[in-house]
Every structure is written in C-alpha cells, then in structure tokens.
Design a protein that fits this description.
Length: 330
C-alpha cells in the first residue's frame, strides 16, 4: 500500500489532537507524521502509534515532501499558510472557514458529495460542524422527497468553541476563578443564543454558515434558516430540524431511508426513552437521528432530532474521511 507523509496543523488543539487519533484508529497509511503548531507549542510532544513525536513550529517551508496536510488552526492561519502548502505540492484539507465558500474550493462531506474531492485545486474545505451532521441526514431525504425548506435550531457544545470555552465551563461549574473567558456571559446553567459575530440583519455568522454551506454541499437552492445556541454540554452538538418537502412522506418512509443511509444511526423509540443524546454520541463517528414525527402544520413536513460528536464527525473524522477518499484510487 502506498504511504503518505501527513502534516497536522494545529496539532496541539482539540481538533488537531483528535485528527491524529482518528488517523491512527482508521489505519490511514501514514509514512511520516508532522505535527505543526505555533511557536508556543514547540517542545511539546504528541503520541502517534505509540511513538512520541515533537511538535514543530509552523512555517512557510514546513510542507516540503508532505503529500497531505490537515489544517485546524483557524481561518487566519489557513489563509496565510495553506497557499505555501499548495505551492509545495501538498493537498490541504482545511477545517476553518477560510475557503468554504470559495467557488474554486470543494466543500465536502464524503457521505453526501464524495466526488467533489477530485475537483480540488490543492485545497479541500471541511464544512462547519453543525452543517456536517445536518446534511448527512438531509441528503438521502432530499434525494427521495425533494426538500423545499429547512428550519434548524442548534444546541452546540462548548468544545465547538475551543479550549478556552471548555475551561470557562469547567471553572464556572467548579465555582473557581476563570482561567480564561470565552463567552460574554456565564455558560454554566445557561444557554447563549450567540455563536460567532452578529450581522446587521440579526443573524450570526454561524447561522449564515449553515445556510450557505448546506446549499453549496447539496448543490440545490434550498431555503435554510437557523438559530444557533451554545449550551453547557462538554461534547456533542444537537439540532432540532424541521423539513418541508415537495413530495408527500410518512414517518415510516423517513425512518427506513435513514436506517440505510451511510453514516446515520436511527435511535427512535421514544416510548422506551430511546432518542439521540450528546452524552451517547460522544467519541463516536456516526450521526444519530430520532424524534421522527410529522409536522401537521404543513402539507409535507417532518421533524427530526439530530446529534453528533462535533470534534469527531463534525471536524476531525470528516477531514480524515476526505483524505481517505482522496487516496482511494492511488
């Protein structure tokens, strides 16, 4: 089997560390792993297949002889260093928002639009975590019933906002002084309807991402409106999704389609208290769906509850799956 030199940019962050763990778990054919991060992380070590590997400083010339680079260090870092990687002949799989809406950069969820991997010009974008889990469920339903409109409300965990957010929740729960402050209000015992910056129309950047990315990934002008909320959960995003179809559907049809959909696990037995929860989705790669029920207020409507681990399928695992698709025919 051909093997690849792989760099992980942002190797000491929540997603970067998980990327390396997923590469190991899925036996990705790594010849040499290069963990890269900012200067303050130089001297740290990461563990990969039982071997300690020193973290190196990210620089413009870091990508010589690197075939694949997984980026998860923020949009500004990606914008600065991804072009250097591409110039060195590296394929970049970027987890930031830097290139997602670039018309020349494919935005890929392998269960949904795998073929787009091969339309790249050196960079492939990983979608927003909340978008990924939603479109994995939407795609097979859209193929059958044609989606007109989606209304989604999210319940997003603090891990989606990084280590500072995790520290704030931990400190608030322990009733100790904050080591770091990520949110403008307390997050413990609270819900914040505020993820990313607000625009003049009252929507946040996160909400706009979900709309724009869904349209780009599905390749259809589907109407999407979102309200995104940060909740005091340590890992796993949840979504309440209302879908209006062009064609009639039934709960049984929707359930049967989703049971056979790639990457989806149906947990839908509310009489026995079976439904998706972030505590059970934690550290798993599937997208879980339940609470499947008709919306009686519109002709062809359905309500769903969708849960997934935002660090794994919402980021690290999806990136590694893109890399797997990229090398599948090599």
């Amino acid at each position: 089997m051909k093997r690849y030199n792989v760099a992980v940019v942002g190797a000491t962050g929540l997603v970067g560390r998980t990327m390396m763990r997923v590469l190991e778990e899925r036996n990705f054919p790594v010849d040499q792993l290069l963990p890269l991060a900012s200067e303050r992380s130089v001297g740290k070590e990461v563990l990969f297949h039982g071997k300690k590997i020193p973290v190196r400083k990210l620089e413009a010339d870091s990508f010589n002889n690197i075939q694949i680079a997984l980026f998860s260090a923020g949009a500004s870092v990606s914008k600065e260093f991804a072009p250097h990687a591409v110039e060195a002949g590296t394929v970049v799989i970027d987890n930031s928002s830097a290139f997602r809406m670039d018309a020349n950069v494919p935005l890929v969820v392998p269960e949904v639009n795998r073929a787009q991997v091969f339309a790249h010009h050196g960079i492939i974008a990983n979608p927003n975590c909340s978008t990924i889990q939603m479109v994995v469920v939407l795609k097979p339903l859209h193929d059958r019933f044609r989606i007109k409109r989606v209304v989604v409300s999210t319940y997003q965990s603090v891990t989606g906002a990084g280590q500072r957010a995790v520290s704030q929740l931990e400190d608030e729960l322990a009733k100790r002084p904050l080591r770091e402050k990520k949110f403008p209000h307390p997050i413990a015992f609270n819900c914040l309807p505020h993820i990313d910056v607000f625009f003049d129309d009252g929507y946040t950047k996160e909400e706009v991402k979900m709309k724009q990315e869904t349209v780009k990934i599905l390749g259809e002008m589907i109407a999407v409106t979102a309200t995104t909320v940060r909740v005091p959960v340590m890992g796993g995003h949840s979504e309440s999704v209302n879908i209006e179809f062009e064609k009639s559907c039934s709960v049984k049809e929707v359930r049967d389609i989703l049971k056979s959909a790639p990457g989806v696990v149906v947990q839908d037995d509310p009489a026995n208290n079976v439904y998706p929860m972030p505590i059970n989705a934690f550290d798993k790669d599937d997208v879980f769906v339940g609470r499947i029920r008709m919306d009686e207020t519109i002709p062809h409507g359905i309500n769903l509850w969708i849960v997934s681990d935002n660090i794994r399928k919402g980021a690290a695992t999806n990136a590694v799956q893109i890399a797997e698709a990229l090398i599948a025919n090599s």
